[in-house]
Please model this.
Amino acid sequence: MASTELTVAYPGREGAHSAAACDRLFPAARLVPLPTFSDVIDAVASGRVAFGVLPIESSLVGPVAETHDLLYESPLSIVAEAIIAVNHCLVGPGPVDLADVREVHSHPVALDQCRKLLALLPAAVAVAAPTTADAASIVAGLADPTIVAIASDRAAAINGLKILDGNVGDHPEAYTRFVSVAPYTRLDRRDGPWRTAFSFTTDHRPGALFHALEPLARHGVDLNLLVSRPIPSRPFNYRFDAVLGGHPLDPDISATLREMRSLTVQLRVFGSYRADHAGGVAAQSA
Amino acid sequence: MASTELTVAYPGREGAHSAAACDRLFPAARLVPLPTFSDVIDAVASGRVAFGVLPIESSLVGPVAETHDLLYESPLSIVAEAIIAVNHCLVGPGPVDLADVREVHSHPVALDQCRKLLALLPAAVAVAAPTTADAASIVAGLADPTIVAIASDRAAAINGLKILDGNVGDHPEAYTRFVSVAPYTRLDRRDGPWRTAFSFTTDHRPGALFHALEPLARHGVDLNLLVSRPIPSRPFNYRFDAVLGGHPLDPDISATLREMRSLTVQLRVFGSYRADHAGGVAAQSA
Model:
């Protein structure tokens, strides 16, 4: 047992999409499945594992709010991202007529991504599971052909389920973006292009967001993502979680962040990471 | 039976928070509960009901993605809003020791708003229900004191459940913003202040969002909300759903929207409505 073994925590269980993201980011690591997103954050923050991997965005349904909010509340940094193609399969213990399906188990986001399939199952109730891999495991345990899951082919294989139908998502092209988190900021700069994630709050005057974004435009910096998140203690007030193209050691980026800090109430950098273009998917500039 | 009866559809069943929003917005209407959000949209679009009411934002967990996306895809307009204080209660058929609770049923957003309570229930599994009112109904049907729900006091009363604990949300102050939708745009301008909801897409150059927001800043118009939503057919590209303070018949607002339209790829107005300050909650400017 090597004491230098690299450990990586992810939410869910074997066969989860998060596990596929771990394999891409840390091919040689020992993977540690944990029940919840906050368990993953806690395991990294306490040093029990070296890294954590969490989904942060779906190309179909948008930001994963829980990850955004846990990162904001935690002392961890984002150190890498991985974009994973999601191929939802309808899986079950054996052949079934679609009209006879009584229950479809899956993660709520996956259910939301398969609305057209669910509309074809008039007798079926959608049942929420903690992850798609949990759904596959639950359905395997019930061993009733009329109770099926939406999960990956990987989860089907691990749980001994048959693939009743492949690619059942509403959109043929669907991706989930995952981030890996660690208790330090990554400052090496080999192998770009880089992304820098940060969060800011503006004051309440008209034009406050416009003025906060001005340094980005003047320095020609890409704004790859802008997500507004509610501030729970101040109803209908928001912070913005953002991703720009570049690294804080680039002079333009350091100037941009310094100037934005002077134009905002609060600005915190979440970390920098190499953009994942492995799937051939490039994020836009806003 | 009056043929002029006003009918209003909402998602869920009697006791749902959406029903409370209907009561506020349409005190004399006949309410029509429907199973899903898209059923509500369809009922309004087909003329079977005059209005629909849907939750669009939680002050704790942010935008309701499904409502944003259904509105974007539908021909309906927003004609009113109502901000409802949410008081989550732990409800069940009878007294139970918290350590013995086996299942907590509720809507996923409500479960997400009661993380501190769930951490106190080590033996409990969280079970997702379509609405908090459905959760109360399911728990009433099971009649097992160790199976409880998070729901409103109204849902508890309707289903003959006891309130085991009141105000179990993580934050003492929590609100849900609802909108009512109709097949027409509201152009009367009595009783301000007004809000105008719209949606736009920018091209992919650096600074595109900044330049799109410039007319708002120059005309001194409040940007009350900016939510980025993914474009499913174009992974990691986004549209922005926004709310500004004012009415399109105000000269400043019509000029702002006209100028923004020339700076964006696409801009669509979702409608105008009177801001709800009934709860004493004012939205910020961004």
Remarks:
- The first strand of chain A starts at residue 7 and ends at 11.
- The CA atoms of residues 106 and 132 of chain A lie 5 Å apart.
- The first helix of chain A runs from residue 17 to 25.
- Chain A touches chain B through 56 residues (CB under 8 Å).
